[in-house]
Amino acid sequence: MTRRVLMTAVWAFCVWGLAPTTGAALSIAYAGAGTDGAFTPALDDPGVEAGVLTIDLRNALTGDWDHAVTAPELAAGNAVYGRGVYDAAKWAVVFKYSSINIPAGLTVEFTNHASRAPVVWLVTGDVTIDGTVTLTGADHVATPAPPEPGPGGFRGGMGYHGPNSAGSAGFGPGGGRRVDRGYGAAHSNTPTDSTAPTYGNPSLLPLAGGSGGGGDQDSIGRSGGAGGGALLIATAGTLTLSGTIAANGGVGSSDRYNAGNRTGSGSGGGVRLVCSSLTTSSTGKIEARGGFADYVYPGGLGR
Asked: Would the pLDDT of 8 be above 50?
């Protein structure tokens, strides 16, 4: 391990000693292991646009993530590997890969499932991330609809758009309040000027992302920033990181001259890594920052 990736905002768990023999690999056993195949996107693959591959979580099958699909079910078209499974009881979209290799220059992002559930990648082989995986929440918007979080995060508060759309505080357990203006959301800490409560724990159990910042009180019609999402990667092999995993909060609306027109930023989400060994380089980084910009109420750190 060439560089520490344990940071204030992120907890990466690398587990060696679970097996009885010293140095034995981590064992992660589950039904249907590897059935989604190898996730090895390339820059020239169909569906990759301007270096970005978007995984649409709305296509996930609904059911028990640990269900071992039978040959008759597969033949009958009741299972489509590669789409993931949304387990409502676990509130997660789970993919069961045999390996993952995300090349440099390629970014993997997500379209939210209707539940806005977090993402879980269970992997039987090695994981290599040279590119970028992003679950960052959206910045403020000037429409009545609140901005979307990263998967597993919570939406930003709505902006004021008249008496029938009066705006709101940020969504989520650490949502930024809306009083005379919108304030930043909390997660592992409460940001400056905010009174939102912290929540969760360093182990990210249960897996959850960041909360949304508060929307404006009146006049400008701008929302708060959305919360960063949540991702669990669990592999029995080696996880190699020279790229970026980002679960940052979205940025609220700024106003240099009038603090009452500012809105709150979303808080950072959560990234948990479970692996037999972790290898990083000087370029490898994991981010779970709150949204921040000049003249904006910041969001709190994630985990």
From this structure: no
